[in-house]
Amino acid sequence: MAKIKLKEISTVPPSSVRKGVYKAKLVKILDELNELQNLLYAENKHAVLIIIQGMDASGKDGLTRDVFTSMNPQGVNVKPFKEPTDEELAHDFLWRIHQHTPAKGMIHIFNRSHYEDILVTRVHKLIDDKTAQKRMEAINDFERLLVTHNNTHILKFYLHISHAEQRSRLEERMEKPQKMWKYNAEDIVESAQWDEYRKCYEEAMENCSEVSWQIIPADKNWYKSYLVARALRDLLVSLNMKYPGLKRGKK
């Protein structure tokens, strides 16, 4: 894969894009997704794994709420991956991930994922470059396993915000009562390591690209949600799914 330079990729919608128009498009797509997810669940032949990565305050939680709550919760599962527990650390780094992958008929959303183990761990010098490279190879094998052995379709999204927008959102968490619960003093410390995180993200995308990454401009939440919803809609449509016929009882 070609070298990725995130600083050269815009974090905002094109100037020709109009908010009202694209919010209306999003509403239409969400209606389509409701039916497509039902079809996915009924046919029970495909699994969908959605991986959402991004800097702190890039809007992962909001994206999950805006796009996926329109679907039947029986067929959708959201798993946020936080700091590993002692039990999880006693296993290989993919152990805690694999048990949350989707069964056929299901859509699973990872809010952060196995990629944290080659991002946070590298920035904080918990692993060296050689270990990171081995983990990236393991990630490629893991994703290949899901695709080839369980008919899992993987969508990987990087929510691409600017450093200025991140700082603005982090400040909001200190000022707005409805967002104070999200505040973590460590977020400011992490923000100061912006360049190092960006470098690690670029290397992760370059080395783990058998399943391609979609870099989503995320400074405007409405545009981010539209792009992700559209990508999922297009994937589900491409599967050419059909409702199964009547089940016949045993004679």
What does this entry look like structurally?
Helix content is 47%, strand content 13%. With 251 residues, the protein is an alpha/beta fold. The chain has one domain (19-238): Rossmann fold. The chain has a five-stranded parallel sheet with strand order 2-3-1-4-5, sandwiched between helices. Helix 1 (19-43) packs parallel to helix 10 and helix 2 (60-68) packs across helix 10. The longest helix is centred in the N-terminal third of the chain and has 25 residues, at 19-43. The mean pLDDT is 95.
> Under the CATH scheme, which class?
Alpha Beta
| Poorly predicted regions | none
Alpha carbon gyration radius:
19 Å
Q: Based on the structure given, which CATH architecture is correct?
A: 3-Layer(aba) Sandwich
Helix/strand/pairing category: alpha/beta
Arrangement of strands in the largest sheet: 2-3-1-4-5
Essential attributes:
about 250 residues; five-stranded parallel beta sheet; alpha/beta; Rossmann fold; 10 helices; 5 strands
A few lines on this structure:
With 251 residues, this protein is an alpha/beta fold. It is built from ten helices and five strands, in the order H-E-H-E-H-H-E-H-H-E-H-H-H-E-H.
Secondary structure elements and pairings:
Layout: H1 19-43, E1 47-54, H2 60-68, E2 76-80, H3 86-89, H4 95-98, E3 107-111, H5 120-123, H6 129-150, E4 152-160, H7 163-175, H8 186-191, H9 194-207, E5 213-217, H10 221-238
Parallel strand pairs: 1-3, 1-4, 2-3, 4-5
Helix pairs in contact: 1-10, 2-10
